[in-house]
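Late entry, calcium ion complex.
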Amino acid sequence: MHIVVLAGGVGGARFLTGVLAAAPGAEVTAVVNTGDDVTMHGLRICPDLDTVMYTLGDGIDEERGWGRRGESWVVKDELAAYGAEPTWFGLGDRDLATHLVRTRMLDAGYPLSDVTAALAQRWQPGVRLLPMSDQRVETHVVVDDPETGRPQALHFQEWWVRHRAALDARSFVQVGVDEARPAPGVVESLRSADAVLFAPSNPVVSIGTVLGVPGIRDAVQAAAGRVVGVSPIVDGAALRGMADRCLPVVGVEVSAQGVGRHYGARTDGGLLDAWLVHTGDAATVPRVDVRAVPLLMSSPAATRDLARAALDAAGIAP
Ligand code: GDP
Ligand code: CA
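Prediction complete; structure with ligand written out below:
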């Protein structure tokens, strides 16, 4: 059995742990957002790929939800002592080794998909870890400059991490997306998988970015298996994250129904066959099998049961 999961960082990583627990024998491919990727201090950083890799490889700092367990921050402090910008991004000492290896391989000409596979050799995440694309696609956020009032574009990481998404966004721009192609294996996996699952990742800047790569949306629509989404919105709010800051920007109501309708029914030119909402959340999405199940990934068992419900909605019993 082959299961493909579209994923961002924290929500995607947790959901993937559930899929692995629910379907121990299955082949699982994770197609991960790289729109958050950024170059800092000369190093290429892939936050969502790393969150998935560290989480599944048992190296994540569980409390923070990102970065390495047992992290130290000597290099960050030393960079700050030089006044080297940016100082607002947390680059841990252990984490730095990942970015050093990645940057060196990219500079030597290896595509990101090969680099990711090489890093995964160490972490053994138990899934085939694929970036959405080998080409650079970077999400930027257009805001009103607080001083001049004029529109200004910031890298997504600066908006998210430095400003905690507090500046009102006018729009999101995927810089480079027109020239991007799906990474090797992405389209083939989506088309042939027995099930395609959307993790409860940010629908705009995680799943939306993946779907924006030319060819990926079409591959989901053409998937042989059923396509099942999991709502990241529970009781009208985003859990861990700021999806509520992103959805209104693209005109989507912050509710399980709003996100479900945004993805739409596959039979109507949309993407979903089934949509999981949290117990007690009402949602009507025309021509989509909407199911209410517990969506809180609060323990390994709860996360596994959520993945089971998604596989059940996909019509496959692991
Ligand atoms: P990021 O890239 O690290 O921001 O992570 P993702 O895009 O993968 O996931 C962030 C989204 O996960 C947030 O918008 C949350 O609403 C959602 N999320 C986090 N924890 C849970 C959970 O326990 N259950 C559900 N259904 N969604 C969650
Ligand atoms: Ca992310």
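The chain has two domains: 2-134+182-313, 138-178. Will revisit in the morning.
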